[in-house]
């Protein structure tokens, strides 16, 4: 299956060091701290830490807990557990290109990649008021999809699922991968009636140098291992994103770098800005980086494993990931020329426009309540469109069985559409509060630990032409997280001290974390 943007990138000669050796800190160095119960006074117990300065996960947890302005700087390494390869690792994209090997096969379509444990842990930290800002070099869109607010995120190299208006600056997050990279014009326009300008993709293609009439960029080759001191590449990145990233790095008392080799300039120099104000840099990566000497703490290990240990020590839950997708059903009617019949059309389409792909639906089976009069139909190619003719006096139900594509957590869902010939009543239209509706759907999905929950979030009708459009929301993925991972024992080792072991449940009784202002 496609690796998406990786297959569109131009071949780049100078990408710095690739095929870098991976290092793993030993288990006792990584292992988070053993807890002990100490009796302080009658019937009062206190949880204390055993003193061991070499325990890196605990050191990181303490830094995060004490931080007042935590900034996280992420690279490709936080998405490898999502099935998205990195660039410079032993099986990275650039490494394989240099070796003349084909790119690795992706286990899922790029547009169905789900956030990792680390992505969702960051969401938990943000909701608790601990994490103030995220700076990402990734273009996979997983930070936005996980739930990090847009205003607290800088995507320095773009987003494969984002289009932006070159005129008014509006952003459009898609459920499909935008077809171009390199800030090119796409096939869609701004939906603002007062604007209507052509949209552009937001992903840098670093090899091609061109001037774009866009408030973002002059693109040049921005990837070098050690750029010349006089080389100013700040114009090569979106100023709005860079300005926010620069601001928060200067404010940060802890800048946590996750899964990045810190070789891409100018982005790799952003964490260093925190040092001027007395901030600390922490690097969690499998390979060594050029900035290791500047860091207060360097951890070599799987990012998911490290962050899971930190969340355990902070007594914080990692929120589940619930994906909700949208689609629209359009039912139109018109009288035949002799006015004896009604010609009608039903279409299942993307909410991003009739010409936009609908990537999470593989096929649609259509059946009818009066199946003696109408044959069932299977729509297995987009556009999902069915045309029929009926007499004016007939009413019936249309049943849609939507079959989902690979990567969705459920196989199908069924939608029932009533068909009648009454003139549509414009007052029957509505637009629900999507945030409230989505929250109810998430709660139901978490309770059921399954997907498939759906709801109508919008309905609009028109008389000319006679049509009804309904927008449906459906839960297509549910992913929960525990502290046990397949790539290593993430759960803290529980060792006995004086015959007592502290469990997570006991720990949760011992302290509660309050959200920071």
TrEMBL record:
InterPro entries for the chain: DHS-like_NAD/FAD-binding_dom, NAD-dep_sirtuin_deacylases, Sirtuin, Ssirtuin_cat_dom
Keyword field: Metal-binding, NAD, Transferase, Zinc
Zinc recorded as keyword: yes
Binding site for Zn(2+): 165, 168, 190, 195
Pfam families, per database record: SIR2
Domain Deacetylase sirtuin-type: 50-317
Enzyme class: transferase
PROSITE patterns listed in its UniProt record: SIRTUIN
Matching CDD domains: SIRT7
Top-level taxon: Eukaryota
UniProt entry tagged with the keyword Acetylation: no
EC number: 2.3.1.286
Protein name, UniProt field: protein acetyllysine N-acetyltransferase
